[in-house]
Design a protein that fits this description.
homodimer, Arc Repressor Mutant, subunit A, three-stranded mixed beta sheet, 4 helices, 25% strand, DNA-binding
DNA sequence: TCTCAGTTTAGAATGATTCTAAAGTGTTGA
DNA sequence: TCAACACTTTAGAATCATTCTAAACTGAGA
């Protein structure tokens, strides 16, 4: 709890009640994938009612501070990943199946980067079917 | 024109005026990336006014028939790609920069596919910065 | 404790996409 | 050629995730 406050402070985030609850849930040690909606639902199960606006704000604040990764898996909604290491995903739209690929993936054969640009990150999504 | 009609028929798509115009634009030989909105704008420039609903319907019909690829680059909107070959992308959100990587990319080091699933496709997105 | 910038919130607004149901149009068989 | 119908198109409403607004609230420092 004080750890969480300290953690938030060290990321220039004022440790408000809501942020403490959200960080406590997200950064409990196990990697998680959440959407604003799923996070709201999970917190509600734990009797923590936080407005959706705040959940969106907080996810973005955390993202802006590098505490979360943003995933673009579908255009329906945005997923955030608590695992901010360089990694990739297995994903299946139908089953809402989404798991990390932590093993080191090698992407080779890339052409040279377009003029005046630099690579920010490489995202590999392995789309699965049943 | 009759080619297009034939092309549509061979894909179980009734060759309506609108589909002929859209297919004529999309499959003119040059690879294209479009969104419903951008397609609508391009057609309008060519004096072809087609309702957005029809544009959405048609993009989906073409997609369902394998004439287009769907790209998930951002959660803001859906991109369709007329290049249906196995290929990947350089993408920059800020600049709306999006180009194909046609060169063969090799993705190695993938862990084994989760039980009872099979790989549908592998999508590599190289996110760029200025 | 006082003060205020930073936060939270309900509810409205936005914007891409989908839905509805009514009007229009290829296609087919006679 | 044409009737008849299933398939399409369309305007406008509806949906849904997300963002915005502006008012109330609350950490943090003095």
């Amino acid at each position: 709890m004080n750890d969480i406050k300290q953690f938030l402070r060290s990321n220039d985030l004022r440790p408000t009640k809501q942020r403490i609850v959200i960080a406590g849930y997200l950064f409990d040690g196990t990697d998680k994938h959440v959407t604003a909606e799923s996070l709201s639902t999970e917190l509600a199960k734990r009797k923590h009612i936080i407005s959706l606006a705040t959940i969106y704000n907080t996810l973005h604040d955390f993202y802006e501070n590098g505490l979360l990764k943003k995933l673009t898996l579908t255009s329906d909604r945005v997923y955030f990943d608590t695992n901010t290491d360089d990694h990739h995903h297995f994903y299946s739209e139908k089953d809402q199946f989404l798991i990390d690929i932590n093993k080191n993936i090698e992407v080779s054969g890339l052409p040279k980067t377009p003029k005046n640009k630099k690579i920010n990150k490489i995202e590999v999504i392995v789309h699965l079917d049943k």
